[in-house]
Specification:
- The chain is mainly α and about 70 residues long.
- About 50% of the residues lie in helices and about 0% in strands.
- It contains 3 helices and no strands.
- It has helices at about 1-15, 30-35, 45-55.
């Protein structure tokens, strides 16, 4: 069950980097990883928080999905 939750958080992080949300009522995924896992999230550098999350939980980060002007 925990694996499914981690996968959905990863998917939510990817969607939020593109400017979308998976659900309207739940907290944003970046809030979840900040509160539960202690990963610091700065609004302008969400990509770094995403990469830290993927590295910590063994996911392969998605290479695409960067908007113009964002740095890895």
């Amino acid at each position: 069950m925990n694996d499914i939750r981690m996968f959905m958080i990863k998917q939510g992080l990817e969607a939020e980097m593109l400017g979308m949300r998976l659900t309207r009522k739940a907290p944003p995924c970046f809030s979840i990883i900040r509160d539960e896992f202690g990963i610091k999230v700065v609004k302008r550098n969400k990509r770094a928080a995403y990469l830290i999350f993927c590295e910590r939980f063994g996911f392969e980060p998605k290479a695409e999905g960067l908007r113009a002007g964002e740095s890895p």
